[in-house]
Amino acid sequence: MNIYNITYKNIAILLSLSFLSSCGGGNTGPRDYDENQPPKRINGELAFSSPSLMKMGESFRIAGDYSNAIRLYQRAANENPTHAPSRLALGQIYERLGATDGAMTYYREVLDLEPDNTDAQLGLGQMMVKSNNPLEAIKYLKQVAVKSPDNYRIYNSIGLAYDLEGLHEEAQLSYGQGLSKKPDHIALLNNLALSFAIDGEYAPSIQLLNKALNIDYSQTTAQQNLIMVYALSGEEDAARAMASNFMTPEEIEI
């Protein structure tokens, strides 16, 4: 896995360097500056259009090099005050890094520019959940759901917020709404199963987790949750049998 990640990161960096070279020379493709004038620089760096900066930033984000991705997205945002995609990308990276306040700041900047941007609306709602404001998140995300009733991800976030408030029946209804839009969505199946387990409803929880694993058995989170639910339900033999697929006997005993 480490070899794959390193290789993939190197490929992404090489692609971005190749893109930089194509912007700086040759006669094919559009230029980001007038070839008859010296290259324009901003803060000592060559100037590129916002789409170019986004493309380079995306290659670094895919490779997991978030510091360089942030730098390029930030340039795109600084050089174009009305550029929403760069701000959305920054919000998503900060969310991934667990920087809740930073993510919320950029999601709000996107919504100042594009009030109906569903990705930013959903991101802001998710950050409300993560910042331990589930009731505020529920109220906000329900308004978003009215505008985007087919977006299953919204119902997943609403369900999480309800579960945090201990309102498990409401959470289960929300996950169910999401699954009516996307029946095979792993996160919705997993979260609904956990909500049932918290309520002591082990049979439907086991059924849902088995469905998730039938869709994609590589889902380690679903595997671990199924082992946990088997154990909670008293089916210790089933829990041990499943755990033996990827745990040592010593780890199982722990």
Structural class determined from secondary elements: mainly alpha
Q: Can you write the helix and strand succession as a string?
A: HEEHHHHHHHHHHHHH
Shape summary: globular
Beta-strand fraction estimate: under 5%
The radius of gyration is 23 Å
Q: Share of helix among residues? A: over 70%
Distance between termini? 26 Å
The total beta strand count reads: 2
Distinct helical segment count: 14
Whole-number average pLDDT?
Answer: 81
Strand adjacency order, main sheet: 1-2
What can you see in these coordinates?
The protein is mainly alpha-helical and 254 residues long. The chain is built from 14 helices and two strands; from the N terminus they run H-E-E-H-H-H-H-H-H-H-H-H-H-H-H-H. It has helices at 2-24, 50-63, 66-79, 84-96, 100-113, 118-130, 134-147, 152-164, 168-181, 186-198, 202-215, 220-232, 236-243, 249-253, and strands at residues 41-42, 45-46. It has a two-stranded antiparallel sheet with strand order 1-2. Strand 1 and strand 2 (45-46) form a beta hairpin. It is globular and about 60 Å long. 35% of the residues are buried.
